[in-house]
Design a protein that fits this description.
Number of domains: 1
Largest sheet: none
Number of helices: 9
Number of strands: 0
Radius of gyration: 35 Å
């Protein structure tokens, strides 16, 4: 039975009591923690294992950083290797060969930095590359890092061979198995450094052009053709005219 109101003469029904809805307090907003900035790479070390990341950091910060110094040191490393492989230093004193390699290699390395990147830029554009001259110069310069580190291998070679250090097959190690073994290990180490330097060079050119390392290899093949074909045509024309 419904309850009646207590008012005189009233017989209405008491309305039900309505409770207020519960107040829901939203949790406080907590901003996600900011990611810690990545530490900058040291290109002298990182380029051995992360050449593209190391070069990208250089291109984004200062693409002209140390390029002439690297070109000069890389030229010296190449001149030392050339002096050994050509056999021209077999009769010249070590001091003379070393002086020519240092001065000529440094000048040749800087000159190479002005000429070679232009060919790489043109050939890379044919394959869809987007690198400019500044980026490609940085790539070519920093790809010298392995060869520059590899110059440290000339110190034990000089201690072992002395005046024969620039000879490809030093006669002084004949009949001396330990010396021959140590010399073979040095040659192997220099060969591995040269091979890995080529891989790093391909990676750096690829990063400068923003394409794959295989296209970088194709770019170098095109550069070789751009150099060989005109020389071959000139030689054929000279023979025809003689």
């Amino acid at each position: 039975m419904s309850e009646t109101t207590g008012a005189p003469g009233g017989c209405g029904v008491t309305p039900p009591r309505l409770e207020a809805p519960p107040v829901v307090t939203p949790p406080p907003f907590v901003a996600p923690p900011l990611a810690a900035p990545a530490e900058p790479l040291d290109p002298w070390f990182a380029i051995w294992t992360r050449p593209r990341a190391a070069l990208r950091q250089i291109l984004d910060s200062d693409p002209r950083r140390s390029i002439y110094r690297l070109a000069a040191l890389g030229g010296i490393a190449g001149a030392l290797k050339l002096a050994t492989e050509s056999g021209a230093a077999e009769t010249a004193p070590v001091a003379t060969t070393l002086a020519i390699a240092v001065t000529g290699g440094a000048l040749g390395g800087v000159l190479f930095l002005f000429l070679f990147p232009g060919l790489v830029r043109v050939a890379g554009r044919w394959l869809g590359g987007r690198g400019g001259m500044i980026e490609i110069r940085a790539a070519v310069a920093w790809s010298n890092v392995p060869e520059i580190w590899g110059m440290a291998l000339w110190l034990p070679r000089a201690v072992l061979l002395g005046e024969e250090m620039f000879q490809p097959v030093p006669p002084g190690i004949e009949g001396n198995p330990p010396a021959a073994l140590f010399f073979g290990l040095l040659v192997l180490a220099q060969t591995l450094v040269g091979f890995w330097g080529l891989v790093i060079g391909l990676k750096c050119i690829a990063e400068a052009h923003r394409f794959s390392a295989w296209r970088a290899l194709g770019t170098l093949v095109l550069v070789g053709l751009m150099l060989i074909v005109p020389v071959g045509l000139l030689m054929i024309a000279a023979q025809a005219l003689s």
